[in-house]
Please model this.
Amino acid sequence: MDIRTGFFYLFAAVLLFAAFRVITARNPVYAALYLVLAFFQAAAVWLLLKAEFLAVALVLVYVGAVMVLFLFVVMMLDINVDSLRAGFWKHFPLAATVGVLIALEMAAVLMGGFRMGEEPRSIPAAVQGAAQLSNTKELGKMMYTQYLYPLEIAGVILLVAIIAAIALTLRQRKDSRHMDPSVQVRVRASDRLQVIKQAPTRVAPPPEPLGATAENKA
Model:
C-alpha cells in the first residue's frame, strides 16, 4: 500500500466518523462543527483525485459560507432540542425505511459503474490529451455556457434561503426589546422632551407662631 492509498483510508475513516457524529450529536452546534470536519475530509479526497477546483469550492462555499450561516442561524434561533427529539422514535421506522431505500439505490448506481473482471485496456490518445487540460477552465466554460440558467436558479434559491434565515432571526420575542427604526426616524423633540415654565424664585411662606401650632395639635 502506497502513501496515497494510506491517506485515502485515513481521510475516509475520519469522514465516516464525522458523518456519524453529525446525526448522533445532541447539540446542534456540535453537529454543525462535525459537518465542517466532514467537508474538509471530502475536500482532501477530492485533492487525491486531482480535482482541485472541486476541493477548493467545497471548502470556500460550504465551509466558509453555508456552514457559517447555518451556525449563525442555529445560535440566533435558540432551538429547543428536547422538543425536536420528542417524536424521534415515533418517526424512526419511516426514516429508516427511506434511508435504506436511498442506500440501495446509490449502491445500485455505483456498482453499475464498476466493471469487474475486465482486462485493462490502453488509454486512447484523445483521453491522454484531455488529461493535460485544466479542469477548472473546462468546468468554468461548461458552467457559464451550457449550464448558465441552472446556475442562476441556484443563486436565486440561495438568496431566498439567506433572506428566510434573516427573517427568522428578526422575530419578536417577549424577553427582548424590539425597536422600529422607522418610528425612531420620525420622532420629534416635543415627543421626547416637555419644557415646563416655572418661576426662578419662590417666596417662602411666613412661619407660624408657636402657640398657634400647639393649639392646632391639641
Summary: The CA atoms of residues 4 and 24 lie 30 Å apart. Residues 134-170 form one domain. The radius of gyration is 34 Å.
